[in-house]
Automatic annotation (TrEMBL), chain A:
Pfam families: Adaptin_N, Alpha_adaptinC2, B2-adapt-app_C. It comes from Heterocephalus glaber. Residues 708-818 form the Clathrin adaptor alpha/beta/gamma-adaptin appendage Ig-like subdomain domain. This is AP complex subunit beta. SUPFAM superfamilies: ARM repeat, Clathrin adaptor appendage domain, Subdomain of clathrin and coatomer appendage domain. The keyword Disulfide bond does not apply. Its main location: membrane. The lineage of its organism: Eukaryota, Metazoa, Chordata, Craniata, Vertebrata. Residues 827-937 form the Beta-adaptin appendage C-terminal subdomain domain. One of its GO terms (cellular component) is clathrin adaptor complex. GO terms for biological process: intracellular protein transport; vesicle-mediated transport.
UniProtKB/TrEMBL annotation, chain B:
SUPFAM superfamilies: Second domain of Mu2 adaptin subunit (ap50) of ap2 adaptor, SNARE-like. CDD domains: AP-3_Mu3A_Cterm (cd09260), AP3_Mu_N (cd14837). One of its GO terms (biological process) is vesicle-mediated transport. This is AP-3 complex subunit mu-1 isoform X2. It is a peripheral membrane protein. Belongs to the adaptor complexes medium subunit family. Residues 176-417 form the MHD domain. GO terms for cellular component: clathrin adaptor complex; cytoplasmic vesicle membrane; Golgi apparatus. Pfam families: Adap_comp_sub, Clat_adaptor_s. It is found in: Cytoplasmic vesicle membrane; Golgi apparatus. Keywords: Cytoplasmic vesicle, Golgi apparatus, Membrane, Protein transport, Transport. Gene3D superfamilies: 3.30.450.60, Mu homology domain, subdomain B. The gene is Ap3m1. The keyword rRNA-binding does not apply.
C-alpha cells in the first residue's frame, strides 16, 4: 500500500467524501483522510473548502496527525482568516506543552500562518519561546521572529523582539546563534538602514566560536555575516582569516564559497609583503578547483565566481589552467564559462596549450560553443602579443574548413586583430575576400566591409566589392548599412577620382531613401563634411584609431570590487550589483572592499579612488560586439586621442552653424532644424569641437544624483537684457543648494564684469559666493556656472512663497528677473523624524492645518515612490498596508526648521495617490505638494 | 531564502509543490519551461533563471527537475546544495529518487520537506536526525502501523539535534559492530588524438559504512597522507588533528556517509590504465566511412581492468554502423547517434577491438567534427593514486569491531579525442 492511493477519486465527488471521512469517529480513518487532503494539496489542488473539518482534527495527541493538520493550516489559513482564529487556542496551548518538540512545532507553524489577526496572539507565546530553556525551541523561535517581521514589521519592533534576537547572538548554543544571525540578516536585508547587525570585535569573536560548532547551513549564515564586518586593522583581518581558512575544506560547496568571500575581502587589508598573504593565496586555489568536480549546477555558480576572482587576483589560479579545459559532455552553460576563464588565464606561458584546446573546440558539434571558441582565439591574439601570429594562422586554417559559421566568426575576430596590430597581418585580406559571398550574418558582413574600407588602398577591386554590397542596400541590417556608408566614404577619401559616383549614391541612399535616423544623420554629417572641407573630412574620417587592447569584457574595477563583496550570491552569478536587479531595489547598501592598511601600494587598491572616477591608466576596452557601431562612429568622428585639429576653419561657428548653413543648400528644403538645446558648451569643452558636442548631447542630459533637478528654463530672454540670455535651475546635492546658470551672449559685443544679487525672500536664500565668470563672454559663447547658495540671507515673506527676485549686472547694464524655486531644494538631509515623535506631532498639529491633495497619473509602486522621495530628502518613516492600500508616513524638514508630516496613500492598480500634509505653517503645504508632484513625475 | 519547491518530470508535469512562505502560483514554472525548450537537451537547462519577480534555481537529478523559487538575494550554491540534499534524502528513504517513489510516499515527502526547511532556513538535513523524526517506510512498519495505529512520526526531540555532534544519534546499539571504508578513485582525463594526456586528475572519496554501538571515537591513518593536499571533510572530522598529525580523527555518524573527498592532480601521479588506438575516417563525396578502435592495458599495476564500456556520439549525418566486435557486444542508436560498446574485461593476449563501416546520409557533406570516445572501466583492489590506509583505531568503547577497507578505481570523465 502506498500513498498513491490518496490520489484516486470516487464518483461522488472527492470533497464530499473527504468531508465525511474527516468527521469520522475512527482515528485511523481521520488520519487517512487528512493524508488524502495533503496529497491533493501537493499537486496544487484547491482543498480549502475542507478548512473547518481539518481544523477540527487539530486537537489530538497523535503527533503525526497534528503535524499534518499544521501543514494544511499553513497553506490555507490566509484564505480563511476567520476560521484560522479557531486554531489559535490550540497553538497557545501547544506552546506550553512539556515536550519541546511540540512547543517548537507550534511556534514554528504559527509563524507560518500569514494572517494579521493571528500575529497578535503570537506575541506572548513567541516571547516565552525565545527564552525557552530548550535550545531547540529557542532556535525555532529565532526564525519565527523573521517570519513575523515579514508579516508585520512594526509589531516586531514594538514588541522588542529585535533586541531579544540580538541577545541570542550571545547564546550558549551555536545552533541558536546561527539561526539568530540568519534571522537578523534576513530582517536587515529589508531594512538596510537599520543597524541590526552591529558587529564589533566581541560579537565577531562569538560568531567565530559558533562557526566551528554549528551546522553547515549555520556556517554559511555566519560567514556571510562576517563578510560584512570591517576589521579595524590588518592584524584583526589576519586573525579572522586564520580562523576562517579551515572552512575551505568543508564538504558543502556553499560553505567553501562563503569562506572564500570572507578571505578575498579581508585579504585586501593585508600587506602583500606579509608571509601570511602568500600562504593565503596558496590556500585559496585547491578549494576553488575542487568546486569544479561537483555537480554541473554547482560548477556553473562556482565558475561565475571564479571568473570574478581571476579578474581580481589572477595569481591565485594562474597555474590551474588545465582544470578549465572543456570536457565534451559538460553542459553547454559550463562549457561557455570555462572558455571565458581560459582566456582570462591565458598568458605567454600557457598560450600554446590554450590554442591547441581552442582549435579542438572549434571542431565540436555545438554551434554556440564553436563560435565562442573561435572568438576566443581572437581574444588570445589580442591579449598575448607573442601568440598573435599563431592565432591568425589558426584562424586562417579554420576559414579553410569553409564551415559557414566558423568563417563568419573568424572574420569578425580578425577585424579586431587588425585593430590591435595594424599593418601586420594585412596579407590575409585576400583570403578573407574569397569568402565574401558566404557571409550572411550582419556582424560578419559589417566586419568584412570595415576591413575593405579600412584597407581600400591595398585592395584593387575595393570599389567593386563595396558596390556589390550597395545593390541590396535596403535589405541590409542597420549595422551593415552604417558600416557600408563609412567604408565608402573612406574609399572615396582614399581614391577620390574613381569613386565619386559611388559615394554620391550611398549618401543619397542613406539620407533620402532611409527612414533610420542614425543612418540619415551619419549620412548628412559625411555629406556636409565632404562638401565643406574635404581636408578636414580626411582628417576626421581617416584619423588614426587608438589601438584596442587586451580584454573585451573586463569588468570595470569599481564594479569588480563591489562584486567581490558579493561572492557566492546571485549578484555574482549575474555580474551585476544587487541594486541593479533585486526586486524593488529595496535601497540595497553598496558594499565595498576594505581599504588596504599599512600598504605602500595605494595605486593597487582602486577603491582608494573616488567611486565613479576611473583611473587614467585603465586600459582602453574593445567595445563588445553590440557596441561596435556606436564605437566606430565615435572613432571616426569624435576627437581622437591624437587630437587632429577638428574643423579648424569654423572655430567661431559652433555646431549650430555647421549644421545650419551649408546643409540647407545641400539638401534643399528638408527642414533640418538645429538641435533643441542649441549646443550648450559645457564647461571645459573647447568652442571648436562642435561635432563632438553634437554627439555628447545625449550623454550630457540628465545625470541625476541627489535630489531631482528640473531641466533648465529660460529666466531672462535675450531680448529683455540686451543680448544676455540666462537660463537656469536649482539643485540640491549633499546638503548644499546651488543655482545652475547658463549665460549666453547673443549680442555682438563681449560681456564681462558679471555680478548677481537676490532680493529678500521667504527662506533667506542668498548667494554664498560671488558670481564668477572667469573670462569675458564673447559673442555667441555660452558658459555654465554653478552658484552656491545658502539660507542665511534676510527673510521677507514673498507671494508666492517661493518667489525669488534676482538682479544680474554686467558691463552693459543691470537686469532684473524673478523666478520660482522648487521647494524641495530646501528639504534638509536630517529630515527623518523619529517614529514616536511623528505620532505625537501628527496628533499635536490641529486638524485644520491638514491639507489634502491628489497626485494623478503616477504609475509607481510604494517602494519606488519612497526611494525616489528619499533621494530628495523626503523620508519614509513607516509603511503600513491597510485594506490593500499602502500607507506611507513621511517627514521632511525645511532649512528654516519647519517640519512637514505627510501621509501618502497608494492603492495598487490606481495611479492617483492621496497626499495628506500636516504642518504648523500650513501655507507651505501647496508648495510641498508641488514638490511631490515634480519629484514623482520626473 | 528558499520560497517554494516544484518537482517536475521530464515530460514537463509539475507533480509536487511545497511552499515555505506564501503560496507561489505554478505559473512561475512557465519561465522554467521556456528555458528548457530553448536548451533543447535537458542537461543544458541553465541552473539559475531570472523572472520578473523571482529567481528559479534548479537542479537536474535522476530524470527529475527540482526547481526552487527565490525572492531575495541568497547564495545560489546554498540553494543548489540544499536541493541535492533533498534528492539525497529521497534516495535514502525510498531507495530511489524517482517520480513513482515520491508519489508513492507523498505524505512522507511532505513531512520531510517541512522538517528540512523552516521559513526557507534549513532545519534538519542530517539523515540521522531526520530518520528519528520521520521513520522511513518499510513494509514491516506499514503493516505494524496499520494494525496498531501507531505512526511513523517520532514524538521526541532527536538527541543529536543540538549536541556538539549533531550528526550522531545517541543510544546506537548493534550486535555486530563493524566499520567499513571504501576508497573509491575516479580518473578524469582528456587524451588527445596522439595518445598523450592533455589533462588528468583523480577525484577520490572515502565512503564509510559504520555500524558501531555507543559513542566510538575513531582515528584513521594513512601510509602516505602527503598525497592528500586538497581535501574536503565531513563535518565530523577534527580539522586541527589533521593539520597537525595528518590523522583523520572523528566520532562517526551512524550508517553510510562520505568521510572525505580529495583530489590528486599533479600530472605525474595520475597513471592512465588504458590506451585506445583509433581510426575513424569519412571519405569525401561518398556515403561511408571506416571505424576501427582497439583498447589495451597501459599502467594497470598488474590488476585486471574490467567493466569497460565505450560510448561515442557519432556525427548527425551517420545513418547506421555495421561493426564487428572482437569481444563484447555493441549497439548503435540511430536516433541519438550514440554508439555503445560493452567490452567487458581486457585480456592482454587478445586485445578487444571493434571495426567496420559507417553509413552516412547520402549527399550530406563529410562531417567536420571528430567524435570523442567516452570510456568507462573499473579496477578492483586498487587506488590508482597509491593511497593506502594504515590503521583504524577506536577509542571510547570497549568492544572489538570488525574493520575493513576496500579499494576501487573507476573512470570518471575519461575521454579520448579522435
Amino acid at each position: 500500500m502506498t500513498d498513491s492511493k490518496y490520489f484516486t477519486t470516487t464518483k461522488k465527488g472527492e470533497i464530499f467524501e473527504l468531508k465525511a471521512e474527516l468527521n469520522s469517529d475512527k482515528k485511523e480513518k481521520k488520519k487517512e483522510a487528512v493524508k488524502k487532503v495533503i496529497a491533493s494539496m501537493t499537486v496544487g489542488k484547491d482543498v480549502s473548502a475542507l478548512f473547518p473539518d481539518v481544523v477540527n482534527c487539530m486537537q489530538t495527541d497523535n503527533l503525526e496527525l497534528k503535524k499534518l493538520v499544521y501543514l494544511y493550516l499553513m497553506n490555507y489559513a490566509k484564505s480563511q482568516p476567520d476560521m484560522a482564529i479557531m486554531a489559535v487556542n490550540t497553538f497557545v496551548k501547544d506552546c506550553e506543552d512539556p515536550n519541546p518538540l511540540i512547543r517548537a512545532l507550534a511556534v514554528r507553524t504559527m509563524g507560518c500562518i500569514r494572517v494579521d489577526k493571528i500575529t497578535e496572539y503570537l506575541c506572548e507565546p513567541l516571547r516565552k519561546c525565545l527564552k525557552d530553556e530548550d535550545p531547540y525551541v529557542r532556535k525555532t523561535a529565532a526564525v519565527c521572529v523573521a517570519k513575523l517581521h515579514d508579516i508585520n514589521a512594526q509589531l516586531v519592533e514594538d514588541q522588542g523582539f529585535l533586541d531579544t534576537l540580538k541577545d541570542l547572538i550571545s547564546d550558549s548554543n551555536p545552533m541558536v546563534v546561527a539561526n539568530a544571525v540568519a534571522a537578523l540578516s534576513e530582517i536587515a536585508e529589508s531594512h538596510p538602514s537599520s543597524n541590526l547587525l552591529d558587529l564589533n570585535p566581541q560579537s565577531i569573536n562569538k560568531l567565530l566560536t559558533a562557526l566551528n560548532e554549528c551546522t553547515e547551513w549555520g556556517q554559511i549564515f555566519i560567514l556571510d555575516c562576517l563578510a560584512n564586518y570591517m576589521p579595524k586593522d590588518d592584524r584583526e583581518a589576519q586573525s579572522i582569516c586564520e580562523r576562517v581558512t579551515p572552512r575551505l575544506s568543508h564538504a558543502n560547496s556553499a560553505v567553501v564559497l562563503s569562506a572564500v568571500k570572507v578571505l578575498m575581502k579581508f585579504m585586501e587589508m593585508l600587506s602583500k609583503d606579509l608571509d601570511y598573504y602568500g600562504t593565503l593565496l596558496k590556500k585559496l586555489a585547491p578549494p576553488l578547483v575542487t568546486l569544479l568536480s561537483a555537480e554541473p549546477e554547482l560548477q556553473y555558480v562556482a565558475l561565475r565566481n571564479i571568473n570574478l576572482i581571476v579578474q581580481k587576483r589572477p595569481e591565485i589560479l594562474k597555474h590551474e589552467m588545465k582544470v578549465f579545459f572543456v570536457k565534451y559532455n559538460d553542459p553547454i552553460y559550463v562549457k561557455l564559462e570555462k572558455l571565458d576563464i581560459m582566456i582570462r588565464l591565458a598568458s605567454q606561458a600557457n598560450i600554446a596549450q590554450v590554442l591547441a584546446e581552442l582549435k579542438e573546440y572549434a571542431t565540436e558539434v555545438d554551434v554556440d560553443f564553436v563560435r565562442k571558441a573561435v572568438r576566443a582565439i581572437g581574444r588570445c591574439a589580442i591579449k598575448v602579443e607573442q601568440s598573435a601570429e599563431r592565432c591568425v594562422s589558426t584562424l586562417l586554417d579554420l576559414i579553410q574548413t569553409k564551415v559557414n559559421y566558423v568563417v563568419q566568426e573568424a572574420i569578425v575576430v580578425i577585424k579586431d586583430i587588425f585593430r590591435k596590430y595594424p599593418n601586420k597581418y594585412e596579407s590575409v585580406i585576400a583570403t578573407l575576400c574569397e569568402n565574401l559571398d558566404s557571409l550572411d550574418e550582419p556582424e560578419a558582413r559589417a566586419a568584412m566591409i570595415w576591413i575593405v574600407g579600412e584597407y581600400a588602398e591595398r585592395i584593387d577591386n575595393a570599389d567593386e566589392l563595396l558596390e556589390s554590397f550597395l545593390e541590396g542596400f535596403h535589405d541590409e541590417s542597420t549595422q551593415v548599412q552604417l558600416q557600408l556608408l563609412t567604408a565608402i566614404v573612406k574609399l572615396f577619401l582614399k581614391k577620390p577620382t574613381e569613386t565619386q559616383e559611388l559615394v554620391q549614391q550611398v549618401l543619397s541612399l542613406a539620407t533620402q531613401d532611409s527612414d533610420n535616423p542614425d543612418l540619415r544623420d551619419r549620412g548628412y554629417i559625411y555629406w556636409r563634411l565632404l562638401s565643406t572641407d574635404p581636408v578636414a573630412a580626411k582628417e576626421v574620417v581617416l584619423a588614426e584609431k587608438p589601438l584596442i587592447s587586451e580584454e573585451t569584457d573586463l569588468i570595470e574595477p569599481t564594479l569588480l570590487d563591489e562584486l567581490i563583496c558579493y561572492i557566492g550570491t546571485l549578484a555574482s552569478v549575474y555580474h551585476k550589483p544587487p541594486s541593479a536587479f533585486v526586486e524593488g531595489g529595496r535601497g540595497v547598501v553598496h558594499k565595498s572592499l576594505p581599504p588596504r592598511t599599512a600598504s605602500n601600494e595605494s595605486t593597487e587598491s582602486p577603491e582608494a579612488a573616488p567611486a565613479g572616477a576611473p583611473t587614467g591608466e585603465q586600459p582602453d576596452v574593445i567595445p563588445t560586439q553590440g557596441d561596435l557601431l556606436g564605437d566606430l562612429l565615435n572613432l571616426d568622428l569624435g576627437p581622437p586621442v591624437s587630437g587632429p585639429p577638428l574643423a579648424t576653419s569654423s572655430v567661431q561657428m559652433g555646431a549650430v552653424d555647421l549644421l545650419g548653413g551649408g546643409l540647407d543648400s545641400l539638401i534643399g528644403d528638408t527642414n533640418f532644424g538645429a538641435p533643441p538645446a542649441a549646443a550648450p558648451a559645457r564647461p571645459g569643452a573647447p568652442i571648436g569641437s562642435g561635432l563632438s558636442d553634437l554627439f555628447d548631447l545625449t550623454s550630457g542630459v540628465g545625470t541625476l544624483s541627489g535630489s531631482y533637478v528640473a531641466p533648465k528654463a529660460v529666466w531672462l530672454p535675450a531680448m529683455k537684457a540686451k543680448g544676455l540670455e540666462i537660463s537656469g535651475t536649482f539643485t540640491r546635492q549633499v546638503g548644499s543648494i546651488s543655482m545652475d546658470l547658463q549665460l549666453t551672449n547673443k549680442a555682438l559685443q563681449v560681456m564681462m564684469d558679471f555680478a548677481i544679487q537676490f532680493n529678500r525672500n521667504s527662506f533667506g536664500l542668498a548667494p554664498a559666493a560671488p558670481l564668477q565668470v572667469h573670462a569675458p563672454l564673447s559673442p555667441n559663447q555660452t558658459v555654465e556656472i554653478s552658484l552656491p547658495l545658502n539660507t542665511v540671507g534676510s527673510v521677507m515673506k514673498m507671494d508666492p512663497l517661493n518667489n525669488l527676485q534676482v538682479a544680474v549686472k554686467n558691463n552693459i547694464d543691470i537686469f532684473y528677473f524673478s523666478t520660482l524655486y522648487p521647494l524641495h531644494i530646501l528639504f534638509v538631509e536630517d529630515g527623518k523624524m523619529d517614529r514616536q515623535m511623528f505620532l505625537a506631532t501628527w496628533k499635536d498639529i490641529p486638524n485644520e492645518n491638514e491639507a489634502q491633495f491628489q497626485i494623478r497619473d503616477c504609475p509607481l509602486n510604494a517602494e519606488a515612490v519612497s526611494s525616489r522621495l528619499q533621494s530628495s530628502n523626503i523620508f519614509t518613516i513607516a509603511k503600513r498596508n491597510v485594506e490593500g492600500q499602502d500607507m506611507l508616513y513621511q517627514s521632511l524638514k525645511l532649512t528654516n526648521g519647519i517640519w512637514v508630516l505627510a501621509e501618502l496613500r497608494i492603492q495598487p492598480g490606481n495611479t492617483s495617490f492621496t497626499l495628506s500634509l500636516k504642518c504648523r505653517a500650513p501655507e507651505v503645504s501647496p508648495h510641498v505638494y508641488q514638490a511631490y508632484e515634480t519629484i514623482l513625475k520626473n | 531564502m528558499i520560497h517554494s519547491l516544484f518537482l517536475i518530470n521530464c515530460s514537463g508535469d509539475i507533480f509536487l509543490e511545497k511552499h515555505w512562505k506564501s503560496v507561489v502560483s505554478q505559473s512561475v514554472c512557465d519561465y522554467f519551461f521556456e528555458a528548457q525548450e530553448k536548451a533543447a537537451d535537458v542537461e543544458n537547462v541553465p541552473p539559475v533563471i531570472s523572472t520578473p519577480h523571482h529567481y528559479l534555481i534548479s537542479i537536474y537529478r535522476d530524470k527529475l527537475f527540482f526547481v526552487s523559487v527565490i525572492q531575495t538575494e541568497v547564495p545560489p550554491l546554498f540553494v543548489i546544495e540544499f536541493l541535492h540534499r533533498v534528492a539525497d534524502t529521497f534516495q535514502d528513504y525510498f531507495g530511489e529518487c524517482s517520480e513513482a517513489a515520491i508519489k508513492d510516499n507523498v505524505v512522507i515527502v511532505y513531512e520531510l520537506l517541512e522538517e528540512m526547511l523552516d521559513n526557507g532556513f534549513p532545519l534538519a538535513t542530517e539523515s540521522n536526525i531526520l530518520k528519528e523524526l520521520i521513520k522511513p517506510p518499510t513494509i514491516l512498519r506499514s503493516v505494524v502501523n496499520s494494525i496498531t495505529g501507531s505512526s511513523n512520526v517520532g514524538d521526541t526531540l532527536p538527541t543529536g539535534q543540538l549536541s556538539n555532534i549533531p550528526w550522531r544519534r545517541a543510544g546506537v546499539k548493534y550486535t555486530n559492530n563493524e566499520a567499513y571504508f571504501d576508497v573509491i578513485e575516479e580518473i578524469d582525463a582528456i587524451i588527445d588524438k596522439s595518445g598523450s594526456t592533455v589533462f588528468a586528475e583523480i577525484q577520490g572519496v572515502i565512503d564509510a559504512c559504520i555500524k558501531l554501538s555507543g559513542m566510538p571515537d575513531l582515528s584513521l591513518s594513512f601510509m602516505n597522507p602527503r598525497l592528500l593536499d586538497d581535501v574536503s571533510f565531513h563535518p565530523c572530522i577534527r580539522f586541527k588533528r589533521w593539520e597537525s598529525e595528518r590523522v583523520l580523527s572523528f566520532i562517526p555518524p551512524d550508517g553510510n556517509f562520505r568521510l572525505i573527498s580529495y583530489r590528486v592532480s599533479s600530472q605525474n601521479l595520475v597513471a592512465i590504465p588504458v590506451y585506445v588506438k583509433h581510426s575513424i575516417s569519412f571519405k569525401e563525396n561518398s556515403s561511408c566511412g571506416r571505424f576501427d578502435i582497439t583498447i589495451g592495458p597501459k599502467q594497470n599495476m598488474g590488476k585486471t581492468i574490467e567493466g569497460i564500456t565505450v560510448t561515442v556520439h557519432m556525427p548527425k549525418v551517420v545513418l547506421n554502423m555495421s561493426l564487428t566486435p572482437a569481444q563484447g557486444s555493441y549497439t548503435f542508436d540511430p536516433v541519438t547517434k550514440v554508439l555503445t560498446w560493452d567490452v567487458g574485461k581486457i585480456t592482454p593476449q587478445k586485445l578487444p577491438s571493434l571495426k567496420g563501416l559507417v553509413n552516412l546520409q547520402s549527399g550530406a557533406p563529410k562531417p567536420e567534427e571528430n567524435p570523442s570516445l567516452n570510456i568507462q572501466f573499473k579496477i578492483q583492489q586498487l587506488a590508482i593514486s597509491g593511497l593506502k590506509v594504515n590503521r583504524l583505531d577506536m577509542y571510547g568503547e570497549k568492544y572489538k569491531p570488525f574493520k575493513g577497507v576496500k579499494y576501487v578505481t573507476k573512470a570518471g570523465k575519461f575521454q579520448v579525442r579522435t
